[in-house]
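seq as requested:
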Amino acid sequence: MATKNPFDPSEFFKAYDPDAIKKMFDPQNMFAFVPDLAGNSFDLQSIVGASETDLKAVTDANMSTVKTYNDLLKEQMGIFEKLTTAARAHVETLEPIGGADAASRNAKIVSEAVQKAFQLMQEMAEAATKANTKVFEETSAKVEEAIANIKKA
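struct tokens:
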């Protein structure tokens, strides 16, 4: 029985599937969340048609974001691979001292590389989270402002 690689990034990438993002921003799917509009005297197709350029711009921007997150996840895995590969290569160049001392020294080198990789991967994720949080906060304020303007109309 094959053992599943715990560092396989494909599970992470499923969250950033371009096809899933496109479906999410399909006009029919989006307007399904606001069925009240269809029952009123609104011409929903006209609204969708008039907004098509804006919706395409949003979808394109989201696809760019998906690519960015895929790249971030790949880079994190690259960090892990680079540091652990460098540690293994370094261990292979060391003078053999034999016995438990060699095993202990080698384990320490690899362990430190793994710890550093995880630290750098975490720093990268935290920087992305911080940037996203800032954008979400700024956008939330703009949404509230837009709602206030709608209520004034």
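The mean pLDDT is 82.
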